[in-house]
């Protein structure tokens, strides 16, 4: 897979960091986020009996589900990793075919008529890589693509932080006051576990 190939061509520190990012984000969202937010609307208690008032206040308090927002953020942050891995996979496959052609003298695209032929070429190129001269061997450099991937990941992180701030803020209040139809007066609503959600 692309992830396996990426892990093969990255440094040991990069491998550990990638796995930590993926596992920690998914663990936080699934193990901490879901249990914390699954009963969010049921536990959003307002001091009113006016029908529909609590629902309107909850919609004002949380225009988007916090849990779904965290899930979308996590998946979006992993997209640059996926794009980078696919790029690495593509470049390495082309490099293996070129090396095979240097070793065995391919002419044009002859012998690449099917994916099975391409797999055979790759397998043969890997087996015969020691037959190549040292002048033909080079180390593939992905630093430019890695920098672009880091730039997009940082941009996504900043964008999601800004959206989170404008939608929810960074701290969950203990009490939320709202006045909106069908509420007939200012209503105070209370959020469950605000300190834990802020953390």
From TrEMBL:
Keyword terms, alphabetized: Cell junction, Cell membrane, Gap junction, Membrane, Transmembrane, Transmembrane helix
Main location (coarse class): other
A GO biological process held by the record: cell-cell signaling
Annotated InterPro entries: Connexin, Connexin_CCC, Connexin_CS, Connexin_N, Connexin_N_sf
GO CC entries: connexin complex
Membrane-crossing residue ranges in chain numbering: 16-37, 69-89, 150-172
Gene3D superfamilies: Gap junction channel protein cysteine-rich domain
Signal peptide start-end: none
One Pfam family of this chain: Connexin
GO terms assigned for molecular function: gap junction channel activity
Subcellular location: Cell junction, Gap junction; Cell membrane
Domain named Connexin N-terminal: residues: 35-68
Domain Connexin cysteine-rich: 156-199
Membrane topology of this protein: Multi-pass membrane protein
Subunit and interaction comment: A connexon is composed of a hexamer of connexins.
Recorded family membership: Belongs to the connexin family.
Function as written in the Swiss-Prot or TrEMBL entry: One gap junction consists of a cluster of closely packed pairs of transmembrane channels, the connexons, through which materials of low MW diffuse from one cell to a neighboring cell.
Name used for this protein in its record: Gap junction protein
Lineage: Eukaryota, Metazoa, Chordata, Craniata, Vertebrata
Gene name in the database record: Gjd4
